[in-house]
Amino acid sequence: MSLKNILVHLDSGPLCTDRLSLAIALAEQHGARLIGLFGQLAQAQMIGMVASWPSPAYVEAAEQSRQKFEAACSGHLRSYSWRDANRGSALEVSRALIEAAHHVDLVLLSQDDEAAAQVVPRDLPEQVVLNAGRPGLIIPYAYRNTSLGQRPLIAWNGSRESVRAVNDALPLMQGCSSARILCFAKPSPELEQSVGDLCAHLADHGVAAEPDYIQAEGIGIMDMLLNQAADLSADLLVMGASGNTGFANFKRHGGTRHILRHMTVPVLMSH
After folding, report:
1. Is 115 within 8 Å of 13 (Cβ atoms)?
2. Whole-Å CA distances, 173 to 2, 3, 87, 233
3. Of 70, 179, 235, 254, which sits most exposed with the smallest number of CB within 10 A?
4. Amino acid 61: pLDDT
5. Separation between Cα atoms, residue 96 and residue 87, nearest integer Å
6. Contact 124, 92 (CB under 8 A)
7. Closest by Cα among 186, 182, 257 to 219
8. Torsion of CA 97, 102, 108, 110, to 10 degrees
9. How far apart are CA 75 and CA 70, in angstroms?
10. How confident is the model over 71-89, as pLDDT tens digits?
């Protein structure tokens, strides 16, 4: 199983270089076509009372993005293309990325970061993951590696979202050295059957996984999940993004947002 096409969000913010490097590495590994979509916040140029779009500053930023993208891809990938969202508002930039994501296997985004807040809409990863219908790979702002998926940690509760996340992550987990399935519930015959079936499904795809059961409540689940990722030196966290997490005492989207704001490893999310 491999990825055939990947979309990476591009902007002039400080996180773009590392995000693009990882996207190129994944595209090269899978022989995938890479699409770079430039989209960032910008104001129209005002001439008197008349607004003109795009502004010279935006045009310059877009051209620099195109040149950087093509230079980075050249010599590494056979198939790649650069696109311009050609929009400036937060709603329009988010919508452009969501619409482009409809036709790819995976979308690469960066974690929200104050240093990039001037050019990137807030909560962009959350909006894309919850509305695009495609898996999102969100990269922490401190992540500098160009590989992942050798030590994945899977958050499992048997929900539709977690099922989608596991299957969407299969191409990233191929050949991994170890995978851990984490359940935040007391073992029961039903849960153990579910986890056993999941382990068998992963084994059919060449992924050997072992289950763990941990009891926690509320937002503490997400903190424990992040702690487990750190303790296990996980290089990929796989989880569903949902308005209804299936965990007790969770507010709508609370778990998704908490992970996106405190993550320290790449996260594959599906909704």
Report:
1. yes
2. 10, 12, 35, 15
3. 70
4. 97
5. 8
6. no
7. 257
8. 40
9. 10
10. 999 999 999 999 999 999 9
Q: Which two tokens stand for residue 216?
A: 């926690």
Closest of 240, 236, 241, 242 to residue 209, by C-alpha: 236
Rounded Cα distance, 212 and 37, in Å: 39
Contact call for residues 11 and 40 (beta carbons, < 8 A): yes
Pairing mode of beta strands 45-47, 50-52: antiparallel
By C-alpha distance, which of 256, 94, 248 is closest to 161?
A: 256
- Which of 248, 260, 268, 258 minimizes the C-alpha distance to 26? 268
Cβ atoms within 10 Å, residue 244: 13
Q: What is the pLDDT of residues 110-152, one digit of tens each?
A: 998 877 778 999 899 999 999 999 999 999 988 888 889 999 9
CB-CB contact of 257 with 219 (8 Å): no
* pLDDT confidence band for 246 (50 / 70 / 90): very low
What end-to-end distance do the CA atoms of the chain give, in Å?
Answer: 21
At 203, the amino acid letter reads: A
Question: pLDDT band at residue 233, thresholds of 50, 70 and 90?
Answer: very high
